[in-house]
Amino acid sequence: MVGVSAVAAPTATSLRLADLAVCALIEEAELTPKPALVDRRGGGSHTDMDLPMLRRSAHALHPTFVALAERACGRVPGQLLREELAEIGRHGEAAMLKATGGVNTHRGAIWTLGLLLAAAVMAPPGAAPARIAALAGRIAAFPDRNAPCEASHGALVERRYNVAGARGEARRGFPNVIGVALPVLRIARKSGCTETQARLDALVALISRMEDTCLLYRGGTTVLSDARSLACAVLSTGGSGTKEGRRALRQLEVALLGHRASPGGCADLLAAALFLDSLDNSQRR
């Protein structure tokens, strides 16, 4: 068995990467005001989640992230590694559910951040985010032959609507993280936006582009189309840093709350972008 408990004396690198992953999850959760997502104001469209729960969930995943980093150290992408990482991820899901009383707060984030963290360990020192994401895609390309038979909401939606979902995003090397969220985040900073505004704009850009399976599961293509259209309106009016952009952001939230839907897949990819951004910044110091 390959479990979280297999890590006896984690390295400084594994601990640092796990710290960055947990920090990315908490920073994503605390970002406010996010459209219909859990933030400092409340649970958004989620009646079973709040910010303290997301913080507990993130901290509970720290041993899982350490174990993933330790397992990937000195390895190359392959079938055995893919399955070992998946088993560690399932232990992480159990820890998450214990911390949240059975609520699925971060299952998608375990997959996304887990792959990127493992790839960061395997990549050459100072590797750019795109190279790390591409390496994560090579890991994700291998199937998990030990995966449970029960289908997740995301898997059901992927089949029903013929969309790539989180698995497809990973296998392609996280194009929405590398090509959408990170560029928007960094361009917004350079344009004079606050860090909060830059992160909100990165999230909205993801909503405008992604086929978010969380939105599809809640309301099908109608909700997805509405969300993408309204997100584009936020960006076209100057983003969250302008009065018009904030008004459009509120309209996006009202629409999603009306559908009782939230862009959880986009939130996971924003956390991934924050992780890669913080890792890249720390390597440049």
Condensed summary:
The chain has 285 residues and is an all-alpha fold. It has one domain (4-143, 163-284). Helices cover 70% and strands 0% of the residues.
Overview of the structural elements:
This protein is an all-alpha fold and 285 residues long. The protein has one domain (4-143, 163-284). Helices cover 70% and strands 0% of the residues. The chain contains 13 helices and no strands. It has helices at residues 12-30, 51-60, 62-72, 79-100, 107-122, 129-140, 153-161, 165-171, 175-190, 195-209, 213-236, 243-259, 264-284. Helix 3 (62-72) runs parallel beside helix 5 (107-122). The protein is globular, with a radius of gyration of 18 Å. It starts with 11 loop residues before the first helix and ends with a helix. The mean pLDDT is 94.
Uncertain runs with pLDDT below 50, 5 residues or more? none
Largest sheet report: none
Whole-number radius of gyration?
Answer: 18 Å
What does the overall shape look like? globular
Class from helix and strand fractions: mainly alpha
Oligomer: single chain
How many domains, in number, for the residues?
1
Say how many strands there are.
Answer: 0
% residues in beta strands = under 5%
Encode the helix/strand succession as letters. HHHHHHHHHHHHH
Give the helix proportion (percent range). 55-70%
Overall pLDDT metric: 94
Distance between the termini: 38 Å
* Helical segment count: 13
Task: Map the helices and strands.
Layout: H1 12-30, H2 51-60, H3 62-72, H4 79-100, H5 107-122, H6 129-140, H7 153-161, H8 165-171, H9 175-190, H10 195-209, H11 213-236, H12 243-259, H13 264-284
Helix pairs in contact: 1-2, 1-3, 1-5, 1-13, 2-4, 3-4, 3-5, 4-5, 5-6, 5-13, 6-8, 7-11, 9-10, 9-13, 10-11, 10-13, 11-12
